[in-house]
Amino acid sequence: MRPFELTAPTTLDDALATPGTFLAGGTTLVDLMKLNVLTPQHVLDINDVPLRGIDTADGLRFGALERMSDIAAHPGVYPAISRALLLSASQQIRNMASIGGNLLQRTRCSYFRDVATPCNKRVPGSGCPALDGANRMHAILGTSDSCAATHASDVAVALVALDAELRLAGPDGTRTVKLTDFYRLPGDTPGVENDLRTGELITEVVVPKLDWAANSTYVKVRDRQSYEFALCSAAVALDVRDGVVADARIAAGGVGTVPWRLPAVEDALRGKPATQEFFEEAVSVAADGARPLSENAFKVPLLKRTLVRALLELTEESTR
Prior knowledge:
Layout: E1 5-7, H1 12-17, E2 21-23, H2 29-34, E3 42-45, E4 54-55, E5 60-63, H3 68-73, H4 79-86, H5 91-96, H6 99-103, H7 110-113, H8 155-161, E6 165-170, E7 173-178, H9 179-182, E8 201-207, E9 216-221, E10 232-241, E11 244-253, E12 260-261, H10 263-269, H11 276-282, H12 299-318
Parallel strand pairs: 1-3, 2-3
Antiparallel strand pairs: 4-5, 5-8, 6-7, 6-8, 9-10, 10-11, 11-12
Helix pairs in contact: 4-8, 10-11
Keywords: Oxidoreductase
InterPro entries: CO_DH_flav_C (IPR005107), CO_DH_flav_C_dom_sf (IPR036683), Diverse_Substr_Oxidored (IPR051312), FAD-bd_PCMH (IPR016166), FAD-bd_PCMH-like_sf (IPR036318), FAD-bd_PCMH_sub1 (IPR016167), FAD-bd_PCMH_sub2 (IPR016169), Mopterin_DH_FAD-bd (IPR002346)
Organism: Amycolatopsis heterodermiae
């Protein structure tokens, strides 16, 4: 880790007025600084800035500095969000990591984290070894000839499925961005991962009220049962009435370069019986446009099976 200057602003105005790299839980930033992937000269510890609070009165609102474990345990948090948080990392990391930092975490692609290898995210134009190298964990959706790194966040998948928005503050004022619009596909500029502008900070995460979001879940398929990133995951909220799907919200993780919303699957489910037969028919379009690499074509059927598993889990729960 290279030397850096550390300051600790106590107000949002002070934090936004000081150039530097924001530090919350540090569970991503510190790791990348140790690896010399990131080498900020000035780090701003913002943990004393008043960006906390959890409100479930009308939808959900989380201050950006709320810890993952506290949100997961809070009454009234939709199950898909709570389960996505609880299936993330380890308890110790969840106690440290902030919700805002989790949504901004960098990819866990081994090439990105190894400064001895090329990586277009880290050094634009240097190449993407994953395209022809070890790529079992990489994305099949939203990839480009420049990058196939998978988005790492679990809870971002649940939040995308539930139409979450971010409140952002920066030198030019405040604005609101839908999370689905916040993340960017790699294209020719994989180093530009989101719509966060210079000096901006996430201040709040807002999830619109959805009466049937209580019937939601997050299913994560991984190589081991704890402290592992997803090979594939599914965040699903389902509104079933008289045995028929009235509405659905669905997103997938572990397969996309961004949290992958699946509106075509949602459309295919609406108005259909909530049975395994129709679930399998609806998810048949989930991997449309996929570009598997040499070692991850298994993610195409895995995505469909993970979605069916999540849908069946919700249907079984709703009929108990």
